[in-house]
Amino acid sequence: MSSVEAVRKQVLVSASAERAFRVFTAEIDRWWPRAHHIGTSPLKRAVLEPRAGGRWYALCEDGSECDTGKVLTWDPPRRLVLGWQITAQWKFDPSFLTEVEVTFTPNGPKKTLVQLEHRNLERFGLEAAELRKAIDSPEGWGMLLAKYAEVADAEGGPR
Amino acid sequence: MANAAQCFAALGDPTRRRIFERLSRHPMSVGTLASGLTVTRPAVSQHLKVLRSAGLVAERTEGTRHVYRLDPRGVQVMQAYLERFWSQALAAFVKAANEEDEA
Predict the structure, then answer these.
(1) CATH number of the structural domain A7-148
(2) CATH code reported for the domain at B4-102
(3) Chain A / chain B CB contacts < 8 angstroms
(4) What is the pTM of this model?
């Protein structure tokens, strides 16, 4: 299957990179959308464990936990790479991996440009065996930052 | 052609999700699909119709058999879905990050 264009977004926040990074990670529950929960029980709290290898999951009202993925790169306050491990079948699968990279770049006093890229989307269409091959392959995506120029300006910038 | 809401609705049914999962392993005929499920063959056909109209599966005729497989366009729908998902999520993130600044 051919490559699928990565999803790229950027927003400008009125906060230092440190604060923006913290709100994105430790305080993810303050902003994570409730409507996109995959579990059978309502979402109680979104959790992102603040360390490399940490889990990224949802705590449900019934006490169950639904994994979204894990923290692949933990480099505060500039860079974060998360593994999004929910398949096209809407299930957590540890052998499935797409990456969400988030960078935090200071842009003036108390302003930070936050850029997000969700890549490897072609893997949603691959079968498990092909998928493992793709994950092990040294190529794939990367070098896509130049494409940021095309991204339309931030929705919801500072007012 | 598929849209994300249709895909979501189509996969919202557990039997359809199982059909979709089984087809993600390899293409199958209606009969083969039905033999591994607790629903009748006409019911499987009905579910396949919904999955097809959502753009998630495609059909091919081999002699007298109808063989179903996943439709790669479903992947494009996932992309569109994530596009919207992240727009919404980041708008909420901006609000949270900015709010704290005013506090």
Answers:
(1) 3.30.530.20
(2) 1.10.10.10
(3) 101
(4) 0.64
